[in-house]
TrEMBL record:
UniProt keyword Iron, yes or no: yes
Keyword Mitochondrion: no
Name of protein: C-type cytochrome
SUPFAM superfamilies reported for this sequence: Cytochrome c
Domain Cytochrome c: 38-146, 185-291
Gene3D superfamilies assigned to the protein according to its UniProt record, in alphabetical order: Cytochrome c-like domain (1.10.760.10)
Length: 295
């Protein structure tokens, strides 16, 4: 019996060690950012396409105040309520003391400069596909924004979901940095905008019980995390709009039926209306190329 107990204890220690090793936060490849110089003008386009202000401005912000990225917006989920943090250039409350590789680690690995996993309410699973130059440009632009000393609000997440290290296990199961759709070269810009920068699948794709995206039902629509209605599907067997309809909606916020955009999608349209017509057309072409769900 003593030998059995000893073996079980040893096995538990080994299993814990293996688990600790496997759930360790990944490190960004710093060499990918060596020598890169960011361009703030190009970074503004990346910032807009990625919807950074949409989640990180104060809940009641309007107009230019949306560029003060103090956070505080609540995002409800089955695992608790997450609050967007302060990402202004303030060195204490925000990310003013970060480096370019710190930002790259957050965006592409979901890891903080202190080596902690971020919750996937922050869409790093999409941003992981960002080009290093775009990260550098985004960093250059974000440093031009106004700092603010407002402290970030802690997430309202209970046990066991508040165990950050466990997110390493979640990443092993669901974090894939490759693209979902294989596309021809003419669709690559649209894919980059949809699957990476604009992270459209975060809302338009259903999730499993552990919060991982169901890639088998890519862009197939999903319950609204707020509990109010559903996010519509974008696959061509469910969405009858033409490519021109999709592009016009992203520019104007009006559907072919003359309904107006509402909810958080209004922020998405506000962002896309500031991009070029070529980018909106690229997104529309990608959407129309989605495979049907066959349901």
């Amino acid at each position: 019996m003593k030998k059995l107990l000893g073996f079980l204890v040893l096995a538990a220690i080994v299993a814990a060690g293996v688990g600790w090793f496997l759930t360790a936060p990944s490190q960004v490849d710093a060499s990918a950012y060596d020598g890169l110089t960011g361009d703030a003008d190009r970074g503004e386009t990346v910032f807009t396409a990625a919807g950074c202000a949409s989640c990180h401005h104060a809940p009641d912000a309007e107009g230019e105040a949306k560029l003060v990225l103090v956070g505080g917006q609540p995002f409800a989920s089955d695992f608790g309520t997450f609050y967007s943090p302060n990402i202004t250039p303030d060195a204490q409350a925000g990310i003013g003391d970060w480096s370019l590789t710190d930002l790259a680690g957050a965006l592409t690995q979901g890891v903080s400069p202190q080596g902690q996993h971020y919750y996937p309410a922050f869409p790093y699973t999409a941003y992981s596909k960002m080009e290093p130059q775009d990260v550098a440009d985004l960093w250059a632009y974000m440093q031009t924004l106004p700092p603010d000393g407002t402290a970030s609000q802690p997430h309202d997440v209970g046990f066991p979901f508040n165990i950050r290290r466990a997110l390493g296990g979640w990443k092993l199961l669901f974090f894939r940095d490759g693209y979902v759709m294989d596309v021809d070269p003419e669709l690559e810009r649209g894919r980059y905008l949809v699957e990476a920068l604009a992270h459209c699948a975060e809302c338009h794709t259903p999730r499993n019980a552990l919060g991982g995206l169901d890639r088998g039902r890519w862009m197939g629509g999903a319950p609204n995390p707020s509990g109010d209605g559903t996010i519509p599907p974008l696959t061509p067997d469910k969405l009858s709009w033409s490519a021109e309809d999709v592009a016009y909606y992203l520019e104007s916020g009006f559907t072919p039926e003359f309904d107006a955009v509402g909810g958080h999608m209004a922020e998405v349209v506000e962002n896309f209306s500031q991009l070029t017509a070529e980018d909106r057309n690229a997104v529309a072409a990608y959407v129309k190329a989605l495979p049907p769900l066959g349901e």
